[in-house]
């Protein structure tokens, strides 16, 4: 799809790019600007998620997990599931 649209919209007439309706009717999905915008958005989302993951790892390394509270909450969750309701 990309190569067909690109070759049709970038075809030349005597060394000049076609102007007018052929360039304006180009499919937006296959435009290079769309790919650049999607890549920029994906990079932003990944950058934020990497910061979050690194901060979580550092928090767990420095502060650790209170094992007694963890086991208590896990036990309560299991018993709530087995009894069919929340406690």
Description of the molecule:
With 87 residues, the protein is mostly helical. The chain folds into 2 domains: 1-30, no CATH class; 31-87. The chain has 4 helices and 2 strands, in the order αββααα.
Quick summary:
By secondary structure, this protein is mostly helical. It has four helices and two strands.
* Helix-residue proportion: over 70%
Q: Indicate the structural class.
A: mainly alpha
Distance separating the two termini: 56 Å
How many structural domains does the protein architecture include? Answer: 2
Calculate the mean pLDDT score and round it. 78
Spatial strand sequence of the major β-sheet:
1-2
The description of the largest β-sheet is: 2 strands, antiparallel
What is the overall silhouette?
elongated
Give the number of helices.
4
List the helices and strands and how they pair.
Blueprint: H1 2-9, E1 12-13, E2 16-17, H2 21-24, H3 32-63, H4 67-83
Antiparallel strand pairs: 1-2
List keywords for this structure.
mainly alpha; 87 residues; single chain; 2 strands; 2 domains; 4 helices
């Amino acid at each position: 799809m990309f190569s067909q649209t690109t070759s049709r919209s970038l075809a030349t007439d005597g060394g000049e790019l076609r102007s007018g309706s052929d360039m304006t009717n180009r499919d937006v999905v296959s435009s290079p600007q769309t790919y650049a915008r999607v890549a920029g958005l994906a990079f932003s989302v990944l950058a934020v998620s990497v910061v979050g993951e690194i901060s979580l790892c550092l928090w767990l390394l420095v502060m650790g997990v209170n094992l007694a509270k963890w086991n208590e909450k896990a036990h309560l969750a299991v018993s709530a599931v087995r009894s069919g309701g929340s406690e």
